[in-house]
Amino acid sequence: MEDIYDKPLHILKKVFGFNEFREGQEEVVKNILSKRDSIAIMPTGAGKSICYQVPALVFEGITIVISPLISLMKDQVAALNEAGVHAAYINSSLTPRQISLALQYASQGKYKIMYVAPERLETEEFIEFASNVDIKMVTVDEAHCISQWGQDFRPSYLKIVQFIEGLPKRPIISAFTATATHEVIEDISCILKLDNPFKLISGYDRSNLYYEVRCPKNKDEEIVNYVKEHRTQCGIIYCCTRKSVDELQELLEAKGFPTAKYHAGMSDSERNDNQEDFIYDRKPVIVATNAFGMGIDKSNVRYVIHYNMPKSMEEYYQEAGRAGRDGEAAECILFYAAKDVRINQFLIEKSHENDELTYSQREVIMQRDDERLKAMTYYCFTKDCLREYILGYFGEYGQACCDNCINCQTEFDEQDVTDICKDIIGCINESGQRFGINVIAATLMGRKLAKLSANNMVNNSYYGKWSSKKEAYLKHIFNKLVIDDYLSLTNDKYSIVKLNNKAKSIISGDIKVIMKLAKRTEEYSGAEERRGLRKSEVLTSKGLELFEDLRNLRTIKAKEEAVPPYIIFTDKTLIDMCIKLPYNKTEMLMVNGVGDHKYEKYGQLFIDAIYRFTGGEKQKFYYEGADENSKLGSQKGNDKIFRPRKKGEFYLTDYIKKGIKPLGKVTISQFVDHLNGLRDETTMKRIAGSHLTAILKEEGFVIDEFNKLIGRSTLTVTQEGEKLGISTEKRISQKGNEYSVLIYDNNAQTYLLSLIEERWN
Fold first, then answer.
1. CATH number, residue 591
2. Exposed, middle or buried by CB within 10 Å (0-12, 13-18, 19+), for 630?
3. Rounded distance, CA 44 to CA 24, Å?
4. First and final CA of the chain: distance in angstroms?
5. pLDDT tens, 597-628?
6. Residue 12: CATH number of its domain
7. Of 383, 569, 580, 761, which has the fewest CB atoms closer than 10 Å, so is most exposed?
């Protein structure tokens, strides 16, 4: 194989089986090959490992990959060996004899890539080895761990700098991570002393992932139902405590679902056995704390559920990102409950008790952790696009509507809830700020509870004032008031709700509280039936049969080879086989993910299986419009293979143009609803009113102006906008409160259509 180590594209195809680099990969590879230090921020599943593995195979000498994760090392080395590349790892899972042999073989030139835990860098044996071999590149994986401002700071990572400085010759340094703010990126570059590094931020968007937040009354019941609906799919369920992991895993097992578990309270052997049960598909579901998952390269995880809200967006993005690593569609669902905030506040405080930091350093980090928790909590309550929220957190901005999260698939109305907020604040104040949200909500609803009678809450002047509202609706408003700093919750075991100074502005009438609620019903709590992803089949029924045959064959070979099934071929590769039906070596090497070495090991075996199934006929086992780039998904209640058809951007088709009619005076929402109702929703994304409003702002027809009366900015029409046909109209809410909306006449609508024609067609 030595002759292929000439050009990166040759290596990419012959070793890894890919015809071209993914977005961002080629730029990083070229810069590393030009011997330039590099730092790359790439989302999970974007192919970070390719960025350093390809150059490592081009270079003479050894590449050292530093990783904190035993599981990642094992996965990466197994995958490289399956691809015909000799690699090794050194960590605490090996015996001293095994470590010595690995270093001996590496010294003899048998390994091009060696994975090492940071703790091993300061051992005498490894330092001696490193001083006597040609280390061409040092790659730092999970590089955010080196920064104190990162979400997972590890002091052992600071040893990397000392190790590099002790080498006879400075190697090329490359650093990779999936999650880092701009501040953390600069910190990584500074601490590692990168020399004029090439920096790539390929983007945080994982378009194949569907995001949803739920607030169920019974989390356990919803989890059981979800796992039942996705019985044969692999999934990870994260819990924030060991107790929750144990209880949920026992519940799922009792319901008949093979389920593994993983947390720090288990022995090393128990954790290893459970992790392997999951990786080898013996148990398709694993319930775990966040101690599990970093570096797990399992490609066919179709869902990640968070039983509790994580402590930060960085943590959530990384954990949710373990779904759909193969680029196929997957679901990321977060179950939120109010107590999640208190649990995380406790975990943050506990995590810093034994930090080797000064008091001032610990205070700064604690403050940052609190800010991260607040941003995470906002995510759980925003009614705007969830994907846009995640991207915005990391300093990246996309479209206002992704059409692949629960909020973009739900229609909302804005409601003035100022009157309810006044009564919530009044009830809290009258009761002496002595109770939690549950008691205040029950009082407002006028519930007949012994606890309310015992605490004289039945005589509270607000008792029963909102008996027409459901508890979930009132709590939704409570949560908004907490997030917006009108109320706060104590950190006690039984959290008490307190009034903040800002609450006075609601009582005085200086502020109006506007909240977005789902159109279906204002009491929508998220527990009702949800609109799922619109999916269309790719494989026909015969194609699905072939896929199952190939998957069973893969399982058999995986057991024989003692490797995880996805190491042999991913689901994506098997689906591509079902579409292309290869009958010879040339055709099999055209399948995505089949390289020379894998063909030699498995190619003929799978060709024979395809031939037996088809009788050698070139048949069509997929539907029109399905191709290699479409996304794999799942239909609830059905274990077939699906992919959502990729939707194009909105544009004015002839059919839409014919259906457009003058609407008279309407809001921007009513205008775009009219247009969206004319489109083919299976092939075209929605157009959002916010897109048009942004353009109108650019062109000076409307502006944002601060309104002192309500304490926030509102959209206001300019003189130019008035000439165009935009006007302001006063309206009265159901509660008698006055508010303003912008109205667009037929002339303004004609202009909006010209904007769409110009910018979207």
1. 1.10.150.80
2. buried
3. 13
4. 50
5. 899 999 999 999 999 999 888 888 887 554 44
6. 3.40.50.300
7. 761
